[in-house]
Amino acid sequence: MSELLDKAREYESKKEKTIAEELRPLFHLIPRCGWMNDPNGFSFYNGKYHMFYQYNPYKTEWGPMHWGHAVSEDLLTWDYLPAAIAPDEEYDTDGCFSGSAIEMEDGKQMLVYTGVRREEDEDGNWHDIQTQCIAFGDGKDYVKYKNNPVIKSESLPEGAGKYDFRDPKIWKENGMYHIVVGNKTADGDGQILQYSSEDGINWNYEKVVIKNNNRFGAMWECPDYFNLDGKQVLMASPQDMLPEELEFHNGNGTICVIGTLGKEGIFSEENCQAIDYGIDFYAPQTILTKDGRRIMIGWLQNWDTCGIRRDDFPWFGQMSFPREIAIRAGRLLQKPISEIVNYYGKRISRKSVLITDSCSLSSIEGRCVDMTVKVKSTGANLSYKKFEIKFADNGKAYSKIAFNPEESIVKIDRKHSGSRRAVVHQRRCRVSDNKGEITLRLILDRYSMELFINDGEQVMSMGIYTDIRAEGISFKAFGELLMDVTMHELKR
Ligand code: FRU
What we know:
3% of the residues lie in helices and 53% in strands. The chain is an all-beta fold. The protein has two domains: 3-336, Glycosyl hydrolase domain, family 43 (Tachylectin-2, Chain A); 344-490, Sandwich (Jelly Rolls). The two termini are 35 Å apart.
């Protein structure tokens, strides 16, 4: 083992013990200590789910990228394993960037990642040279392949840039390994490249899967590519997006391109939508479980909002709640994985509550809850102008969800959550017009809120770093409405 990896493993095992349990969410994976970004190597191996992540154990800031590692039997409770890889080779000395994992024929697990090395060009400018590298292991210890990198800049097609070439996502099909990799062309546009290999070691360039053509941001990071419900789906996380109505927003975003695979594997696009309509969601990866579910986990964070943080926390960055995804009527549907029911505590349910102003209901409170709220007008016409749910409320700090049935817009709002930074605190999303009827399912897990609207037609996620004792939940109608609410306390 290299000195760097040894040092990281020793550091994290000591540091971890100083982190109080209540500082960690119950089900959302956070780094063992320090900083976490993208999910990496999300896979099933040797009877367990594995999640690796972009990791700087030493600080709560982005830094020398290692891969952190955790395993789980149900995707909800995680056990940490020692850091898997460190930036300890010449070709990855500036970082082991994002990638994926797969089980090989010989039973080993292979990690495929991007090695980064800074180089000075003829004009004295420094650039990251990004290449694709592999490592083999037993689910805990990994050895980098001696002839890394396995895909170098020389294997890039014409027009592809060598400075932004990263985040390989691997799968196996008909006996061949394939990866999709994000790339920025020399003239600044995003594209996704596909490579294939018989053995995982010798790779050949196949094709450009999709070109951005300057539609959604510039570089497309962290691609994933899979078949789902008869459609072919390409997910990616573009940088430098421009806003489009309420669909896409400025900065880093996520897109889901839904299409079909035609002759000779040509991907033809049919629809493109945001994956998450909230504030904090990026770089998702999916797996196909043994029972045939496609499950997605993203980084519950956004590069542009990293300013909302708790300086007193020994960690930064968390993963989203795992979501089972499907394609219905050409659109992405998401729901929290069903394993959540195994962690249900007390259940409170109230039917047809008439709400005419602000109200709280006895025992409906908490920071770890799965709560579904259905509202509708009291008669045939719209009987209310707005409906609000306040949560993580201590009378001073709170966060909010608001639904405007006339405009069919849902807003999430953490402006009063205790943040002292001028970053994005609110986001709006257009939902289907059901004449004042809407279903809102909130997953609250200490430092996050994920809102599944109308059975997962849209999801809006955000981190909230309000004092954990802020547990209040209340409802408010502007006008009158009828509400059904079912809340399950979540506990381990
Ligand atoms: C996306 C990303 C990846 C890269 C990694 C570096 O969030 O920028 O493209 O591999 O983070 O930590």
